[in-house]
Predict the 3D structure of the following.
Amino acid sequence: MYLRLGELPAVVVSSPDAAREVMKTHDVTFATRPLSTTLRATVAGGLGVAFSPYGERWRQLRKFITLELLSAKRVRSFRPIREDEAARFVGGIAAACPAGEPVNVTARVANLVADSALRAMIGERFGRREELLKCVAQAVKIGSGFNACDLFPSSRLVCAIDGTVRKARAFTRKTFELVDYAIEQHRERRSGASATDVAEDEDLLGVLLRTQEEGGFGCPLDVGDIKAILAELFLAGSESTSTTIIWAMAELMRNPSVMKRAQTELGCALQDKSTVTEDDLVNLPYIKLIIKETLRLHTPGPLLLPRECQESCEILGYDVLKGTIVLVNAWAICRDPKYWDEPEVFKPHRFEECTTDFMGTDFCYTPFGAGRRICPGLAFALANLELVLAVLLFHFDWQLPSGVIPSELDMEEEVGISVRRKRDLFLHPTLRVPL
Ligand code: HEM
């Protein structure tokens, strides 16, 4: 579908065939992302990987991030952090149970995901997490790409009235101030640690600082780059992960039979154990299916991240001109009845009967994107998604607030760069398995 978004030519791709053309057949042509006016204001302090133009620097940085920061080995090394944070999370909810008050699951999951990610990044809990989460909420709102100043970039008047650029600059200043604080916290901790400790549990900031000392990753790495990379990994990873967990919980509350099956699976797999560890996850195939189905029905980035056409080309017989913004409508593709039976129904077992996966080869299902720009945080995200969901369902039974019936649970969405649940999810927990 060809559109004009204000002054900008745009094509929205809404079929798997067209998505394959963009993200596979002509992947290089679409491997750059457009820099909207708002984004330009936010990346002024430094450029991470997500909005680097396709080229040598992006290639080297992407390789470094994939092999050094987010590799399967590195993600595994953070297992003790994830398990420890999950245990603290269970303890916090268990302490709230006797009071009989509903728990704000949205806020607790956001804190857990943030604490876990930040410990992986700087080696310990971050002292100003609340402020950082406020920045994330703001990024989701201003990063949609559909602000007036993004749609009419040539109009200084529109930009001045719109005010988003001002907000974006304030957001960047605040985020970078927090990243400075995190680097300082990291430095203080490291100065008190022995050389062996430092080598043994290297966090992401440690890897970045070591790489800087060693001369970079094939390209120089300055402090501005380090800050931009850290901020970007946190922004890209935390909101998408916690949003997915909350949608999964909301769907489970609406579908008690799915909840029951998941809890039965956990009971059989864990037997007399009193805590979920990552070793148990291999025996929880149904939890994995719930996550897949949640990513289908509530794709966190419904239009993925935008691409820009670098060279005029033809997609399924239509001309796409150089400079056109291309949006892959993963949301629509994931709900298209041509490819999905009863697409609006939450049915995790649909994935039992098919081999469709989110690794970027099935173009009817690309919640993590595909091609050169596919999400490099997939393993990092899955490790958190699976453990947190398993822990929530193993330790607690959950009830809706009185008067709410499952089929009427509020599922209203708030659209930004990701689609989160508009209102926080409040539920009553009952402890099933104490720690
Ligand atoms: C449920 C969780 C997540 C979802 C659904 C998700 C989804 C996506 C999508 C759709 C893209 C764009 C892909 C494309 O253009 O083809 C992307 C890019 C990216 N994601 Fe994720 N993501 C998640 C978690 C994470 C995590 C945990 C991290 C890091 C810790 C991360 C880091 C990134 C980065 C750096 C990019 C930009 C890659 C590039 O442009 O080269 N994401 N993600």
About this structure: The domain at 2-431 is CATH 1.10.630.10 (Cytochrome p450). The chain has a mean pLDDT of 92. Residues 181 and 405 are 45 Å apart (CA to CA). The chain has 17 helices and eleven strands.
